[in-house]
Specification:
The chain is mostly helical. Helices cover about 70% and strands about 0% of the residues. This is Transcriptional regulator, CopG family protein.
């Protein structure tokens, strides 16, 4: 693991300490879990946005399929 430092508010620190005590988890573990959850949530949003953008991609029949095929063969 890589060590890093962040600044948090007094209220965030107090809440983190309280949550760590009530769950029996370390503050570091809670922070890592929160970061993982945030990253996964954003990855899911990005995937969904990409899919939504792709839905309309083929709605017209003027696409040059040969050009697409050639670009895939490179």
């Amino acid at each position: 693991m890589i060590r890093t430092q962040v600044y948090i508010t007094k209220e965030e620190k107090e809440s983190l300490e309280s949550l760590a005590q009530s769950t029996g988890k370390s503050q570091s573990e809670l922070i890592r879990n929160a970061i993982d959850t945030f990253i996964e949530s954003n990855n899911t949003k990005n995937k969904k946005a990409s899919l939504l953008n792709a839905f309309g991609m083929w709605k017209t029949n003027d696409h040059d399929f040969q050009q697409t095929r050639e670009s895939m063969d490179r």
